[in-house]
Amino acid sequence: MAILKKEEAKALLQKVLAYSKADECEVALRGEEGGNIRYARNAVSTAGDIDNVTLSVTSSFGKRSGTATINEFDDAALERVVKRAEELARLAPENPEYMPLRGPADFKDAKTYVETTAAMTPDTRAEAVAQSIQVAKEASLEAAGFIENTTSFSAIMNSKGLFAYDRDTNVVFTITTRNNAGTGSGFAARGYNDISKLDTLAATKIAAAKASKSAGARAIEPGKYTVILEPVAATYMLENMFRGLDARNADEGRSFMSKPGGGNRIGEQLMDEKVTLYSDPFHPDLPANTWSRDGFPLEKTTWVDKGVVKNLTYSQYWAKNKGVQPVPQPSNIIMEGGTASLEDLIKSTEKGILISRLWYIRLVDAQTLLLTGLTRDGTFYIENGEIKYPVKNFRFNESPVIMLNNVEALGKTERSISIESYRSYLIPPMKIRDFTFTSLSDAI
Amino acid sequence: MKRKDFIQLSAMGLGALVLPNFSAFGKSVDPSQFLNDGIDVKLKKQLADVALNAARGKGATYADVRIGRYLNQFVVTREAKVQNIANAESFGVGIRVIANGCWGFAATNVVTKEAIAKAAERAVAVAKANSRVNADPVRLAPQKGYGEVAWKTPIQQNAFTVPVKDKVDLLLGVNNIAMKGGASFVNSAILAINEQKFFASTDGSYIDQDIHRLFPTFTVTKIDRASGKFETRKSLSSPVGMGYEYLTPTADNKVGGVVTRYKDRYDMLEDVKNATADVDQKLKAKSVEPGKYDLVLDPSHLWLTIHESVAHPTELDRVLGYEANYAGTSFLTLDKWKSRNFQFGSKLVNVVADKLQPGSLGAVGYDDEGVKCGQWDLIKDGVLVNYQAIRDQAHIIGLDHSQGCCYAQSWSDVQFQRMPNVSLQPGKEKLSVNDMIKNVEKGIYIIGDGSFSIDQQRYNFQFGGQTFYEIKNGQIVGMLKDVAYQANTQEFWNSCTAIADKSDYRLGGAFNDGKGQPGQSNAVSHGSSTTRFNGVNVINTARKI
């Protein structure tokens, strides 16, 4: 029963709520099924199938709440779990930040479910991997990759009449190809709701070309360079910034969104005018969930408009505290781009570095959002609009906020994934001046 | 919505950990349920046999099954508020098989004979589907069956028997000390974990294990309202493979010096008082002048450098390329090991892999593919002598047995090679930290772990810390800030010039050593004594936006 349809989920949640005697009660249901293959050295290393479903009940008496969960669904079990949540609520300390549950809202259907993705089997995955490995073998390269498909649903209902349901599918594919000498490495990553958009053959060919071209890298001095970040590199860098779009942290003075002297940076020109960031769960190229976990409908929301901070997320509690409307956590993020292709960006560069991928990015300083990390899997020197030769990888120390103040040009936005969270975004390739490399790495 | 989307750690650290009602950690339960024994071991054996027989019936040449009950308790507070009390239980079965020479895996949370048999059949189907891609069959190192055996973390007090109220009172007490001391914010948490794992395999092992871990932690933040600058200081605790006794220190568990550090036990109330003073000093500290410094690294800091630059590159799966698509490979290639003269570090550097050390996060009786655990040398007198290998890799380095370091984070994840505890051995000569500092002309003494990053072959790394003390002419002269050091792994370990003796030896560690696809967390400890490294490159991390 891992994936319930909307009406099935609704009926089950109504049955659970009927047992509640609490002041307020929220019930949540989540199921997931899917599978994956991991391969390396041109062979499958691990693979698996999983299914799981859980039901949780949160009961509240005044400002005291308790939660209990089960994975059994007979009537006695449903009654028992509600009772247990109520017992826990009576034992819990009062939460001064407790916010009452929200009433019914109109949630539009998400466009995140694709039947063909849900229908994937071990054989489908094996076939996709076989194609990828074949490309690597033909190019005398070693392939290591990963494919995972997931079908999941989430539903919430509460005693005030709110009901929300989402169902989605997702498939993620990442591929690294290395030459036998270990002197060249290339990478590609793809993530979609719709398996028909995934071409493992084409992605592996891109990774293979990068591996071949990156062999024989030369060392050049670290320092400040104009860089072109391919979308997969830019995505990973920016994801660290997207996590910080929170008003409470900013207002409390411990975020890059904090204004010196107090308050946050809403209304401030924090980035270059070319930078616009927004969320839109109905974007056809990046469909996403249409409601937040705390029961808010998700609509198009602009975070940064032409470099000016327009919005930060506000929890219900913090919004009330500040006398503003809550702004829920978004389910996707999109960065507007230009019309240039990656090739156009390279052609327009007198001297610079093309970065295919970034790796092991970690926060160094929360105040400035200074990050450190490294280039990986294809780093090339550009001169007079042409890729001249591969260069050794660099360590960088750079803040995405400073980086987005140094935007020379943006290319056409495309669907990209973070190589750490595997979440999908729409991000353009970007040309950035004065990107700070602090040391060289011998890693291939 | 993906499971991982529910959990995000912001730059604030643990205080920002949001545990939703249905989290990736499992299902939330009444804490009293934690004291139930779960299902009887005899029933587990019956269920395991269902899986093994079903797999064999479908053509598996090898099968193992893990019936897992994973209990987690998170008590999370900030200032005077309890943010979250989450009691989570995850229960299910994972079945791994070899069929047609290829691995397959399937997992289910429905623990019935029928569902388990079906999952075993699915695992075989996965293996057979993938065998079309594979040319070489899996080669498993032989493993004798142990019959029915059991192992338990030797705890004195099960953290799950301690009332939630006591934990809340402790954390709010911690927060109160910080706020009274002038902190702007404080986040604190206690995380308790219990893995109840039953393993069985077609080799004839039935292994029942009960594993306990604990992690008390806090972060103190102070903001200078005039400048808008803020600084933080994390706790100097470690996650440990212990019970609640970790929080009952005596004078013997305290290490004096510029700030009190802790060995085997932890005084949270004392540490938060010191942290509040530290964070105040950090705001006023001098910004570091970039350049070469001799570094004196406390075990509370060095554990993370050991983790990233020694433990990860000696993982054999990385060396062979199995992690190439995610965390990368390793510069410690097989030719360096075969040469028997690859000088990984100076002659002082001895590193041991270990799955037995009491109180450590990695300590278990048997790994997740039924191999009895032990310890072995990785680096001997500075030379690379061994790796970390599991059953299907042992033959590659000429071993006829696994080294017992296979692990899965949950019943629903496939087990694979994960690092054991990896520790730098103390110096053989008597040497105190004060003696070490006396000989430093221009240096920095670093306490606590901070920012960390390393490349995909483990050459180039950068580390921060919690507190930094300038050393001039053998004396600590004050605090520094904006410090990070960068180095190349081999150069760094070859610049090791002194290691304090065993009296200073302490464990650090992490609950969340990440690896694999889908990603899995492994809990692991790393021990060392205070260690000196000469001429390391230090950068200044201050920026302005």
TrEMBL record, chain A:
<dbReference type="GO" id="GO:0008237">
    <property type="term" value="F:metallopeptidase activity"/>
</dbReference>
<comment type="similarity">
    <text>Belongs to the peptidase U62 family.</text>
</comment>
<dbReference type="Pfam" id="PF01523">
    <property type="entry name" value="PmbA_TldD_1st"/>
</dbReference>
<dbReference type="InterPro" id="IPR036059">
    <property type="entry name" value="TldD/PmbA_sf"/>
</dbReference>
<dbReference type="InterPro" id="IPR002510">
    <property type="entry name" value="Metalloprtase-TldD/E_N"/>
</dbReference>
<feature type="domain" description="Metalloprotease TldD/E C-terminal">
    <location>
        <begin position="222"/>
        <end position="438"/>
    </location>
</feature>
<dbReference type="InterPro" id="IPR045570">
    <property type="entry name" value="Metalloprtase-TldD/E_cen_dom"/>
</dbReference>
<feature type="domain" description="Metalloprotease TldD/E N-terminal">
    <location>
        <begin position="25"/>
        <end position="89"/>
    </location>
</feature>
<dbReference type="InterPro" id="IPR045569">
    <property type="entry name" value="Metalloprtase-TldD/E_C"/>
</dbReference>
<dbReference type="Pfam" id="PF19290">
    <property type="entry name" value="PmbA_TldD_2nd"/>
</dbReference>
<dbReference type="GO" id="GO:0006508">
    <property type="term" value="P:proteolysis"/>
</dbReference>
<dbReference type="InterPro" id="IPR035068">
    <property type="entry name" value="TldD/PmbA_N"/>
</dbReference>
<dbReference type="Pfam" id="PF19289">
    <property type="entry name" value="PmbA_TldD_3rd"/>
</dbReference>
<protein>
    <submittedName>
        <fullName>Peptidase C69</fullName>
    </submittedName>
</protein>
<feature type="domain" description="Metalloprotease TldD/E central">
    <location>
        <begin position="131"/>
        <end position="213"/>
    </location>
</feature>
